[in-house]
Amino acid sequence: MKLEAQKYADTVVVAPVGRLDHDHCEGFRAGLQPHVAGAASSGRDIVLDLSGLEYVSSAGLRCFMLAAKHVGGHGGKIVLAALRPVVAEIFQISRFDMLFEIFPSVREALAALSAPAAAAFDQG
Fold first, then answer.
1. Measuring CA to CA, how many Å separate 122 from each of 11, 55, 89, 97, 106?
2. Fewest Cβ atoms nearer than 10 Å: which of 11, 32, 35, 72?
3. CA–CA gap between residue 60 and residue 46 (Å, rounded)
4. For residue range 10-58, what is the model confidence (pLDDT) as tens digits?
5. What values do phi and psi take at 92, rounded to 5?
6. CA distance 68 to 100
């Protein structure tokens, strides 16, 4: 699974592309791990830009939950942004929309987490 990351001030935006199912979970976890570790060590936040995510399975949901638990245990958090309709429906059906803050856009997620990150996003 392809993951693109961009840092805006004190917040990192990670954007997975493709399908997050059993076959791609390990690659997603491996790609996300440095960002999770960095957020956990600094108590910072991560925005997952899901605009490029085509599908998420129960195994993928578990990956999200474990990453959020790890970051949250160190004072940071993971929020989600820009979910495609099919992915949003999966989050609603599984009730994972109750576990994560979900924003319509990356900009709105950054604004909710950090004014400097939102300003850096606006400049870039």
1. 14, 29, 29, 27, 11
2. 72
3. 17
4. 999 999 999 999 999 999 989 999 998 888 788 789 999 999 999 999 9
5. -70, -45
6. 8
DSSP secondary structure code for residue 3 in this structure: E
Q: What is the pTM of this model?
A: 0.94
> For 9, left (φ over 0), alpha (ψ -120 to 50), or beta?
left
> Does the pLDDT value for residue 78 go beyond 80?
yes
How confident is the model at residue 79, as a pLDDT? 97
Enumerate long-range contacts of 91-100, CB under 8 Å, 24 or more apart.
91/56, 91/61, 94/58, 94/61, 96/61, 96/64, 96/65, 99/65, 99/68, 100/64, 100/68
